[in-house]
Amino acid sequence: VPYGTYRYEVVGHRIVRDDQLEVLKGRGREELALQACWPRFFATHRYIAYAKLVGVDPNVSS
Question: Which residue in 24, 35, 50, 59 has its CB near the most CB atoms, within 10 A?
Fold first, then answer.
């Protein structure tokens, strides 16, 4: 990002079926949701990691 670096902290995770798209919808707060296929090399489930913003480090112009 040209104006800074965002830092996040993982606050939870869950494993869900591949068709449970509702887990990616907003939960009423600002939050980052990352997803990956689970188990490895298969696509039957999704591993969802939730993270919260813990800081922004602005870029320093010289």
Answer: 50
